[in-house]
Amino acid sequence: MKSICTNRKAYHDYHIEETFEAGIALTGTEVKSLREGKANLKESYARIKDGELFLVNAHISPYTCGNIYNHEPKRTRKLLMHKREIDRLLGKVKERGFTLVPLSMYFNKRNKAKMELALAKGKTLYDKRESIKKKDEKRLAEREARLR
Q: Which UniProt keywords apply (predicted)?
């Protein structure tokens, strides 16, 4: 698998409960731009509308060699999943207050563009501080272990 981009901020802002893989419906210039690694998932999210799954606010830069056929960088893109998976996600998003957050975008073994989506709950400010504190403690422990 060739990774295109990841959303590292998602792990800081959300508690990740479950992950899913979804295909992405793209145009030709978007795929060429992704092969160059020009994508950004910051502040993007997934939304279910009329039984279909859409990726909102993800930025894929315009292809440098594309002329009048270039794409809109922040357009809404359709995500491809089975109907029963979408229905299951819809139930969890409506009931329990979960959010669909994209974690990473990559090309699989068959060179198809895929996205890893997470069912996540937002962290509060004290949760974020606590996770930063745990990371710092872990880093210090590893450093001490290396020095011994």
A: Cytoplasm, RNA-binding
pTM: 0.80
Which sequence spans correspond to the domains of the chain?
Answer: 2-122
Kindly state the DSSP code that residue 118 receives in the 8-state scheme: E
Give how far Cα 36 sits from Cα of 42, 62, 89, 97, 107, Å: 18, 11, 31, 36, 12
Return per-residue pLDDT of the chain as tens, 148 residues. 788 989 888 888 888 888 999 999 988 888 888 888 889 898 899 999 998 999 999 998 888 887 787 888 888 999 999 999 999 988 888 877 788 999 999 999 999 999 999 998 888 888 888 888 999 999 999 999 998 8
81 is written with which tokens? 């999943």
Q: How is residue 83 written in tokens?
A: 């109907």
- CATH class of the 2-122 domain in this structure: mainly beta
